Every structure is written in structure tokens, then in C-alpha cells.
Amino acid sequence: MATTGTLQHLCRISASLAVLLGLLGLSSLVKSDEQVPLVLWTSEGASVPAQAPPSAGHIVEQQQLNSYLQKALSRGPRNVVLFLQDKMSLEDFTMYGGAFGNKQDSVFPNLEGALLSSSSPLVLPAVSWPASNAVIGQLQDHLETAPLYLDADTLGQLRLNVSSPALLVFRLPYGLGADLMSAKEILSGNDEVIGQVLSTMRAQSVPYTAIYTGLRPSREAAALSMEAGLGGGRSLLQARGGYRERERERERQRRIQERAGVYAPVQFKEGEETCILMWAKSLSVSILRRGRWEEYDLTPATFGKDVSPKLHGSSCDRTKARLVLNYQEVLGHSNFKLIFVMSQRHYKVSARRWFTLDMVELEYDGTKATFNGSRHIYAPAEYSYRCQSVTSHRWPLLVPRTSKDPANQWRVVFEDFQIQGFNVSGGEFSYASDCAGFFSPGIWMGLMTSLLMVLVLTYGLHMIMQLHTMDRFDDPKGPAISVPQTE
């Protein structure tokens, strides 16, 4: 089993061999379905401060990853090329990287060549996938520049400057079909993209720092590798049948969800990239008229298979996000808007970025009702926020901005609500930060019941310990014991 000394020795031998064998040695120590690998290197002739890889079995979290990136960019090239694969796991290298001596079958020749030419590559075999999701945000903070999403063909049209930092992001696909060769072909194609990008960078003679990682672990590949390992090398073909069974089960679950009415979230795109996501099981608003609450359900006009909500007026950038849902004829108002205003900022106390849902606004016929949500609705910047119930009247998370605000005449109710306004990747929600506290009513009931049972058991044991054995017994052959009544 690999150790820290072994990894250092492998790095002295060859950078490419170290990344493949190091990943293989650590794959048995970490849960590969929860982490992704990350590889960092520089262009030929450029160098970064040498950094010791983590010890065997250590999982790199967000704060430690930020430290690695900060050291690499402090004296290294500040033109960063980020290869961001949709999914990645250790098994992608062990199965397709020629890690068992069959180098001719490796699908990463360009990656290995880049690592060989780099003076100080950094290999992080196990990075928590929420931390890998935050790589773009961390690089933005260090470089103080916005990311530029490109493909290999358009990179040649861009002219880079050594003195001006740039963050170039190349999204790489990942898919695993019913045939094992499909993943191998996709990874091989991704490696060709890496080779094409690096070749273009060399042609421009611009030093760079390159990073190769994934947004999420490729769980299918990990499960397939474990199944194959249980039966030995010859069980790979048998594992295909198990994989097909899992695919059929996923398809069955997907159809069940479709029949149950599960629909896609609302997406707002800035250019080609999704920057805001919002989903809810139910959206409803109510207004107080003549002493009665009149309710209106906005769900059918917001979600559904053939529903396209109008989002004009929405916007997003690095620190602010605004989602505007436009409706017609709501509770007697011809024009009605439901607006979510979010912001993202760095908090020194927690040493990380958080996003908050600052306000929920109802805009109708020139009037605006504003609910404040910043005190209760917040999450880490790289996460999404989810809550079973977001309301303004029963255990309110949304409160009117002032006592005279028109919001006092309104109620909003969002059931099974989830929203994300920053760091959206792949058009999917990131890991959800739930509003529920640790001590839910169910947990309190369980604790109180357990405490009551412990008290009853303790009382019973105490009573049993108070019983005393008789010190005098009747002898059937002798005279009876006489107990005076005066005693």
C-alpha cells in the first residue's frame, strides 16, 4: 500500500508514472465515489514552488486546495488553463491509464508528456468534489479575472499576454455507455483536446499553469472497477451485465419520476452558460382582501414539460444575481413579477464566500412588496440552498422589509424550494445546503423517548439492588420461628 515516501520516490522517477501509480496505490484507501483527482503542472521552462503531496488516504478539502493553488500561482505563470471534466475518478486512470504496465493501452499520452516536461507537477489523488466545484471561484479570486470558456479550435484566435493573467476554461465531456469502450474513447478524445490546447499554447510561447480535474466523481466507473476487482481480472466481461442491470434500474426510476410529475428547474443563461437555477414543488402567493386571504398558485405557469417562463429582467455576474419570473393576470393584476435578488461576498470570520437570498420582491402594476431573506436564507457560495418550506407567515424565513411595506398584505409560500445563483456547473444544482437544523422534531422525540426509557431502566435497577436476602429461615424439623409482634 502506498505511503508518502513511496509517492516522493515515484515523483523522482517520472512525473507521469507517479500520477498513474500514485492514483492506483491510493485508490484502495479513499472512497472514490466521493472524491476526484486533480493534477497541476506548468509549461516547459516554467516552474512553481515545490509542494509536498498529501499523505496516503488524506482527502483534500476546499481550504487546503485553496492553499495549494495560492502557492502555485504566487510565483508560477498566471495564465491558467483549466481542463474541467464533467466526471472523473481514480478508476479512470487505473483502468485506462496503462497503470499495470500495458503503457501501449494508455489513453493519456498527451497528459503524460505534459507531466514529463513539467519541472514540478502536483498530484492530488483525492479532492472532495465540493472543493473541485469551487476551483473556478478560487482561481478567480487569485487571478482577479473572470473565466473565459473556450474550445480547442477557437483558442488559436486568442492572443495572450504574459503580463496580464487569464483564466481559460475548457469543458471536457464524460459519458459511460453500456459498452466499456465508450468511456475509453471519450477519455482518449479528451486527451487529444488537452494535447491540441497545449500545442497552441506552445506556439504562442506563453508560459502557463495547467489544471486537470473533474466536477463530480464518475460513480459508474468506480462501481464497475470494484465489481471487476471482486472477481479478478477475468470478471470484466461479467461486470458488464451488472452495469446493464443498473442502467435499466436508473431508466425505470427516471420513468417513475416522470409519471410523478418531477420537472426541470428554471434556468437563466448568460450567453451559453447557465448562471441561475431555481426549483420548487409549489410556488404560491396570497393577498389580504376584505379580511380574507386570496391565494394564487404560480406553479403551473413556472414549471412543466412544455412551460417556458418569461425571465426578461434577469441578470447575473460574479457578485450579484437577479431572477425575474414574469406572469400575467395574477390576483387581478395584469402584470406580476416574482423577483429573487441574491448576492455573494467574502466573509472574513468564516474565511470563505457565502451567497444570500437578500430579497424576494413582488412587483405588480407599479407597486413593489419586498420581503427580506438575508438573515435566514444563505449557503456557501459553491453550494445551492434548499429548504422544505420557505414562507412569510408560519415559521417565517421571509419577513417584510418594514412595518409599512406592502409586503404586510401578502403571503408567499415555496414548498421544497431550491435555488442557486452562483458557480452553477453543467446546468445542475451543486451540493445543497439544507435549512433544517440538526435537532429536528423527530430527533428531539427520539432523544426524549430514549431518556425516559433510561430513567425507567435506572429506577428498576435501583429497586432490584435494594432487595435483601432473608437472614433467617424456617427449619421444617425444628420449632417454628417466633417473631415477636413488638419488634
UniProtKB/TrEMBL annotation:
Q: Which GO terms describe its cellular component?
A: bounding membrane of organelle; cytoplasmic vesicle membrane; endomembrane system; proton-transporting V-type ATPase complex
Segments crossing the lipid bilayer: 443-462
Q: Keywords assigned by UniProt?
A: Membrane, Signal, Transmembrane, Transmembrane helix
Q: Quote the subcellular location field of this record.
A: Membrane
> What topology does the record note for this protein and the membrane?
Single-pass membrane protein
Top-rank lineage group of the source organism = Eukaryota
Signal peptide region: 1-32
- A single MF term (Gene Ontology): ATPase activator activity
InterPro entries per the record?
A: Ac45_acc_su (IPR008388), VAS1/VOA1_TM (IPR046756), VAS1_LD (IPR046755)
Q: Which residues form the V-type proton ATPase subunit S1/VOA1 transmembrane domain?
A: 437-475
Q: Chief location of this protein? A: membrane
Q: What's an example Gene Ontology biological process for this entry? A: regulation of cellular pH
Annotated V-type proton ATPase subunit S1 luminal domain residues: 273-422
Q: Which PANTHER family match?
A: V-TYPE PROTON ATPASE SUBUNIT S1 (PTHR12471:SF2), VACUOLAR ATP SYNTHASE SUBUNIT S1 (PTHR12471)
Sequence similarity: Belongs to the vacuolar ATPase subunit S1 family.
Its recorded name reads: ATPase H+ transporting accessory protein 1a
Q: What organism is listed for this UniProt entry?
A: Takifugu bimaculatus
